[in-house]
Structure formats: structure tokens, C-alpha cells
Amino acid sequence: MKNIADKIFYVGINDRVTHLFERLWSLRRGVSYNSYVVVDEKIAVVDTVEASFASAFMQNIERATAGRPVDYLIVNHMEPDHSGAIVALRQRYPQMKIVGNAKTLQMINGYYGISDNVVEVADGSTLSLGGETLTFYLAPMVHWPETMVTYGNNAKILFSGDAFGCFGALDGGVTDEELSFEDYYDEMVRYYACIVGKYGSPVQKALQKLSSLPIDIIAATHGPVWKRSIEKVVRVYDELSRYSAQRGVVVAYGSMYGNTAALCEEIACRLREKGVEKIKIYDLSSADISEVLRDIFLYRGLVVASPTYNNELFPPVRELLEKISERTVKGRLFGFVGSYTWASAALKRFGEKAEKCGWETLPCCVEMKQSSLSVTDELIDTFVTAFSGAL
Ligand code: FEO
After folding, report:
1. What is residue 61's predicted lDDT score, i.e. its pLDDT?
2. CA Rg value for the chain
């Protein structure tokens, strides 16, 4: 529990136990489930935490409220990492009103069987707590359809839900007066790429909608509370949701016996010789896919290499391409490297996928039969020259 502004307390939880967020994405530094309490004439809790942390969460609330009852629970987002402790909170404070929009209230009933003592709000609705007034803004698909954000007009605080959040538990503080934005930057990009990456357009709409609000504090549902770094985090979310990219290349390959890997190492060295300074190489059989996605959201170039496998792309390569197309990643330059032993198919499959997704590709690809003995220096040079030139 920590006081982060006048009458506003952080009552979130650090999860250093869960290995996979959404049972998919690695959490090497953990994650925080952020919740807040506004202690005014009326008391409002904003969002809750994942269900298994309900007990510690309730203790945080008791301390923040000094034993007073909670009047309102504001539900900005229903994903269970934030809604999981609603039932525990309602049991402790049976008179507490649950505030959400129409879609939220349907989900609360669906997930938890709660339909009584609820208050439905619409875009722009307000709720007075006495000194502080909360305004609710719908922000659909950032990250679910019911998502909204809540603005505290006095404190100029934006309770932003998943927006501006990041992976990484909070190491010895809560706000960026205690924690450095730079320490969480990688985890912010990785979080965005994995969790919110599909929803660039809704994020842009939300940024536009909120752009005229004076904001002193961004209190997201994951990661540090932003006070000093507001400009930086808004810029990061703006750039990521526009799919803007730096000059650099991700080289991501599948390789069963090392031949395709060796060719990719050679291509990466040649790219460096052509002046490409940022190069990240990943073996997709062992890479952390969330890190590959993070770097794809950062860099413009993507060289993907695959053996032919059952007349298709190598499975981890196919999975990566699916994750990219699901996220409708735009503005990337794809270069393809295919290999085979007796029947060529990888390059054909790359071409089919690229055409279907409308990806920007080079007319020139590299194909290898059996080993790099079959690949001429001239072919690699032509590919690398064209690729680096188009970055
Ligand atoms: Fe952190 Fe979409 O929940």
C-alpha cells in the first residue's frame, strides 16, 4: 500500500510466482496487478487484482481505508487479472456499488454471477466522491471491448487500464519517482507487442480522445505509476500503435541441423557490413517468442528463414508468421530465405502468406538446397544489398 497522490493510494500486488501471463507469455521479471483507492467523502476502489492474490489485496485496502467501508468499485477492464478479486471485495463490502459500462456489467454477471447493486455508466458519465470527481471514457479494444478509463479531475490522474502498462513487477517502489522508465522500457514494448499489439487502431482512437485532458499521473493496471515519464510513455504507445519502426533487422529462423542457421548468420554479418547497426537474431525453436515479437514491433526489417517441412514451413516459423498477421503489423520489410533437401516449398509458402497479408517483400529471395554450398556469394550479396537498401 502506498500513497501516490492526495487521497489516492496504490493497493496493487506484485506477482513473482506466475511464469506465463495469460498462460502464454513469459514473465521473467514478474508482473504487477495495479489497483487504486480514492479515499474521499466516498471511497472508490479502481480495478482489483488476480483472484489468487485477493487476500493480500484486501489487506492493502483495509490499510488504505483505515477500516472505512468501500462505497464504489470502478471496473475499467474485465480481464480476470484485474477483475479476479471482485467477488472477495463484494463479500467484504456487500453495500459497495459496482460501476461499469453496459458491456462490463454483462461480463461481471457472466464471470461472477453479480447483477445487483451495480451502476451503469456511459461515455463521459461522472461520479462525485465528494472532493474528487471521476469521469469515465470508453476505450473499446484497449484491450477488450468493454475497456474504459477513469479520470480523476482534481488529481488529474488517469486510471488507464492496460494502456501505458508493462510487464515487470515493481522493484522497490510504485511510481517513476522511485523506479526508472528506462528499466521498464523493454517490458513495455514486449507487453504491448504481445497483449495489445493487435489493437493499434483502437489505441490511436483512445489517444486522440484523451489528448485534451490535462494529465499529471497515469495509473495503469500493470507497471509503474507514471508521473515524470508521461510524455515518454505516451510517445511509446503512440509509436507502437502506429506500427512505426526504427532502422534495424530481426533475423528469425528455423533450422533443424544448423544449415539454415549458418546461412542466416552469414546474412546478418553482411547486413552489418552494409551499415545496419541494429540486428537481432533468433532461433525460433528456442527463442522466447515474446522477445521476437517485441523486436518486430521495434524494427523495420524482418528476415525469416525456414526449411521445407512436410511440404510446408517449419512449424515454429509458421507460428511466428501467424502471430505477426494476427497483430496486423504494418510497414515492415520482409526478406525470405527458404531451404530444402529434395523438394522446394518454403519460399512458395512464404510468398503465399506475404501476398495474403499484403506484406512488403523483396523480389529477391535466397534459396538453399541442402547446405550453403548451393548458395552463391552473388545471391547473398544481391539479397543483402536490396534488403539494406530498402530499410
Ligand atoms: Fe491486464 Fe487485458 O488485462
Report:
1. 98
2. 24
Task: Verify whether ligand 1 is closer than 6 Å to residue 7 (CB atom).
Answer: no
Contact indicator for 209, 140 with CB cutoff of 8 Å? no
Q: Which residue has the cell 510497414?
A: 331
Which residues are CB-neighbours of 118 under 8 A, at least 6 positions away? 97, 98, 99, 100, 105, 108
Beta-ladder partners of 252: 282, 304
Output the CA angle 11-48-95, nearest 5 degrees: 100
Rounded to an integer, what distance in angstroms lies between the CA atom of residue 139 and that of residue 148? Answer: 5
Q: How many CB atoms are located within 10 Å of the residue 341 CB? A: 14
Q: Which atom of ligand 1 is nearest to the CA of 196?
A: 2
Strands 299-309 vs 246-253: parallel, antiparallel or unpaired:
parallel
What distance in angstroms lies between residue 171's CA and the mean position of ligand 1's atoms? 20
Instruction: Give 281-294 pLDDT, tens digit per residue.
Output: 999 999 999 999 99
Tell me the C-alpha to C-alpha distance, in Å, between residue 93 and each of 36, 112, 178, 364. Answer: 16, 16, 33, 65
Give the number of the atom of ligand 1 that is nearest the alpha carbon of residue 147.
Answer: 2
81 lines ligand 1 (CB under 6 A): yes
Query: Taking CA 119 as the corner, what is the angle to CA 113 and CA 125, rounded to the nearest 5 degrees?
Result: 140
* Whether the CB of 42 sits within 6 Å of ligand 1: no
Gap from CA of 275 to ligand 1 centroid (Å): 39
Q: Is 353 in the pocket of ligand 1 (CB under 6 A)?
A: no
Model pTM score = 0.96
* DSSP type of residue 94: T
* 221 CA: nearest ligand 1 atom: 1
Render pLDDT for 20-38 as a digit per residue (tens, 0 to 9). 999 999 999 999 999 999 9
